[in-house]
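Handout, page 2. Input:
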Amino acid sequence: MYNSKITGLGYYVPDNIVTNDDLSKIMDTNDEWIQERTGIKERRWIKEGSDDTSAVMGAKASRIAIERAGLTAEDIDFIVFATLSPDYYFPGCGVQIQDMLGLRTVGAVDIRNQCSGFVYAMSVADQFIKTGMYKNILVIGSEYHSGGLDKTTRGRSVSVIFGDGAGAAVLSRTEDNSKGILSSHLHSEGKHAEELTVIAPSIRHWVPEILKENDENDESYFPYMNGTFVFKHAVVRFSQAINEGLQANNLKVSDIDMLIPHQANLRIAQFIQKKFNLSDDQLFNNIQKYGNTTAASVIIALTEAWEKGKIKENDLVVLAAFGSGFTWGSVIMRW
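Output:
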């Protein structure tokens, strides 16, 4: 059976930097309040009038990843696109990528697992390669959050957290079973779905209905998060996902060269770092600069860590994520 390994990485974030001080001008908040609770100093939001969308940003990141893999568009066999903020309710962004990049009429699938989206997407792509069905798969995580946030004091507990951006990886076939993805581990617990959700618009509660039936203070079509509840579950599930991956491969925490956690909240990452007794060199965070970019966060962080030389040949790299659904998982890789 084949293994799959990352051969190319790329990311893209909008130029528009929104600082905590910028947010304090449009809602009742301040830099100290935001940093204390999230660790975030700034984020990128698509500027009004920009052509950027989830698909467009995904295409920009993908072009970088494909070039770094030493491949061309002709070499890509399949697309897996992870997002909670697609350009359209349907179709998904994957087919837009096929068109934007001028790919052959390859298959495309969208993953809707929010913060765990990229981990899920990698697992799906890995299975297609392991079975021999495809050779080179484009795996993308991209989010356009800023267009759907409640940017008032009412929505500050959520809106200060999220940013826009995209990342992409080319996952390629290898016959070296000691390299690449060693295992992936996925979980869900749907009974907590409404603890982190957007209730509407949906098929049951479409936009015209909202405008007609709900007053202007209705919050159902903005993201809702029970922050304390999510935090408590996140630190438990992150730990479980990491331990599960290590145990499946007869590895120890001390074997980890780089942990890339989903950039949900710097306090969660710091809790995990302390729990596992990881050094600063064993964990990478960039939420301070980009906020929580949901399905894009793991791949943006992975790409940045690699670009900075923090990931080297033969390193054991662990990706871990937890988010809405609830869903969580991990991917264990030998670089």
